[in-house]
Prior knowledge:
Layout: E1 5-7, H1 13-24, E2 29-33, H2 38-45, E3 49-52, H3 58-69, E4 77-80, H4 94-127, E5 131-136, H5 149-169, E6 173-180, H6 191-198, H7 210-221, E7 229-232
Parallel strand pairs: 1-2, 1-4, 2-3, 4-5, 5-6, 6-7
Helix pairs in contact: 3-4, 4-5
GO molecular function, one term: oxidoreductase activity
Family: Belongs to the short-chain dehydrogenases/reductases (SDR) family. FolM subfamily.
Protein name: Dihydromonapterin reductase
Amino acid sequence: MTSPILITGAGQRIGLALAKHFIAQGQAIIVTYRTRHPAIDELSGHGAVCVYADFSTDNGINEFVSQLKLHTNSLKAVIHNASSWDCEANNPDSSTLFDNMMRIHAKAPYLINLALSELLLNFQQQQQHPADIIHLTDYVVEKGSPKHIAYAASKAALENMTKSFAAKFAPNIKVNAIAPSLIIFNDHDSDEYREKTLKKSLMGIEPGCREIINSVDLLLSSHYITGRSLPVDGGRHLK
């Protein structure tokens, strides 16, 4: 098996689009899921290694790392896509919400990066090309969010870790982030919400997952970019 790319949370939306993109390229992938969406069976049928992972506890994170190491001794890249878009309005227990957001968006990537660095270094030594870690953060890191305070704080922590890990692992592993705003709507989003959201960016469109795929491909093909965050926000910062 050639060195695979690990994608966390690949059962739907951006993670699923990335998984299908790499499969179409003939790139080996390992994906994680917590809920076994029908797409997981589809990915498995196309050769993806699909590993259950519960990042809500330290034991769950450690168990995932152990399971992954049974499948490969090297990794070309780790793409941290697993996420939870949760907010204060839906969670009267603010303490639990904050802990959950920090765990999935900051602690899990932190522990996984440390635990899998040896596998990434193995790829670098075999290929003489830097391995990669890519954190999927969020546009809200730039300005905060009064409705998603804990979520925004956890994504900001992840963006800061991008810089720290880039310095720690250079030059053998490049570490970057991608910070999207709207990429794709949910099926249940109302017409009113869609119209309001589209007006928040200069480009005014629903760009689709291809924008994230292109950004990931750029970072993977580079030998030089590290410690940076690519904004994929349609000029939203200028509105």
